[in-house]
Amino acid sequence: MDQRFDVTERFADGAQYIAGRLGEGGSEGTHAVVDPATGEQVFSYRLAGAADVDAAVAAAEAAFPEWAGATPGERSDAMHRFAAALTERADDLARAESLQCGKPIKLSTEFDVPGSIDNTAFFAGAARQLEGKAAAEYSGDHTSYIRREPMGVVGSIAPWNYPLQMAAWKVLPAIAAGNTIVLKPAELTPLTSLMFAQAATDAGLPDGVVNVVSGTGPEAGERLVSHPGVAMTSFTGSTAVGRRVAELATATVKRIHLELGGKAPFVVFDDADLEAAAHGAVAGALINTGQDCTAATRAYVQRPLYDAFVSAVADLMATVRLGDPFDPHTDLGPLISHAQRDRVAGFVERARGYATVVTGGEAPGGDLAKGAYYRPTLITGAPQDSEVVQSEIFGPVLVVLPFDGDDEGIALANDTPYGLAASAWSRDVYRTGRASREIRAGCVWINDHIPIISEMPHGGVRASGFGKDMSAYSFEEYTQVKHVMSDNTAVVRKDWHRTVFGDRQT
Ligand code: NAD
Question: Domain 264-446 sits in which CATH superfamily?
């Protein structure tokens, strides 16, 4: 038993949550959840197979009529209770998240868990705000109105970097709008998604409204995306897998919502507050050990500030404390796995051939050698078309490059296939205003980088995908618009019937 969170006892019945009950997966395969801070196995479970996905979709289909037919007020009440149930479990959720991801406990406690609870409370309120827009006699003879209806069963697939928050972002707008859902978390990190679903049941949400299948992408994920009983696919993950998901969903004519990778630029103009920008860059690059789709990855700094910025960032990176995720003083935990650490190290090793690794660029030794740790890394001198500038590394690596004119800074910011998030740093409102208009991204921060809030949407453009998580905008994804057109005349032989009956129409 792990003293930090007792996984084995809690999930003794298995890691599938279907129709309000935990059960074993039916796949041939098992998956070992590994603590990335130690490399030790903390839990092993049978993966979901196609039959588990089918059972979860059947449970969601069975729950749909009652849940969709509940009044907005009833759904809202249930979701307020859900938020309260999550609040009661906040400590367990934080510890489980830190265990399976290696996240510093202060990050789980101060960001992941409260953010997810706040999202739940937000959507409990938003459930009562849904409405259709048009109601008028547009034709003169009919009343037209709009019904905004749930899609049905939503199939959602989530990544491992923020498992609880991703579960929240996928599940909450879907169920607030009256859908039921089958969520597939990443196989590395099922624990908090299962606990989230259990909290929903304990709060009184009917069985089958929230189901979780813990399985691999090719087996459980592809079955969920292709399943004829699923009305819509919502996916968060890499752009490469997103393309595959889009192909499968399109083949079965489903609505798709894709939240994909990012390569966020961080543009520092020469009148910026240097200290604020340097702190913002280090925090924005290292949060969650850089495994954040909106992390600051490419800082473009106007020439007069460039040298001072590089040196301030290097100094700040040296102050960041790597350590045991359960130590409240730890700033930076390990990467999610040794494979991910090796992938990140591969980018940095190859960069030594064409750029300068100013600081970091290695795994720590000593007590941390067993874990998937990697030191905060600063790279300069990389060409704009090199892989460390163009590809998502998903680790604690920041590339800093200089620029001259404002036009160049904005052009460089736009010069990758991605468009998820960006930031602009300046004291001049005209410069930041221009950057916010011209940088192609789903979110542009001004003099900050990373904060999110339940009321505001999150989502990308271009290779970062389409559609919105969080906020009332996410209801656009999880509802469909129906036009109802009702005759007001009671006339039997309507004027337009002439197009069919011609002069026989009298
Ligand atoms: P990933 O694409 O490897 O996996 C994401 C999910 O897809 C997992 O649940 C995985 O099991 C599943 N999957 C894999 N192959 C599949 C297939 N063939 N069919 C169906 N499902 C399949 O991503 P990851 O490594 O778990 O997460 C990191 C990625 O997620 C990064 O690219 C990051 O930018 C992205 N991300 C994006 C956002 C956003 O909001 N845009 C948020 C968080 C993470």
Answer: Aldehyde Dehydrogenase; Chain A, domain 2 (3.40.309.10)
